[in-house]
Amino acid sequence: MVKWKNWFGTGCKGEKLALSHSTHDKLNETIEMLERRKVALQEKVAIENDRYKGFTKFKNKKAAMECLRRKSFYETQLEQIENCRSRVTDQMRRINSLTL
Questions:
Q1: Which segments does the entry list as coiled coil (predicted)?
Q2: Which of 14, 43, 81, 88 has its CA 20 to 30 A from that of 98?
Q3: Domain count, the chain
Q4: For residue 10, what is the DSSP state?
């Protein structure tokens, strides 16, 4: 019976508001987690770049190519994190517009 009331808009609005707050908190936690992962990956990219420079200085092509491969992998992960972060912020905006 409660489902029917929620589907047709006669349900309790307090429940909807509480749900939006908990969802908003979860989305904020997700954004914070993505930011931490982004910082960690940026550090890894910087480390791989330094290692690449060191290996090229000593003319170790194989190790330098491995560093570039890992660096590009980390950079693609950074792009995926940015895409995920933008989707989460869009969801937050939609939830805010629904509750207002």
A1: 24-51
A2: 81
A3: 1
A4: -
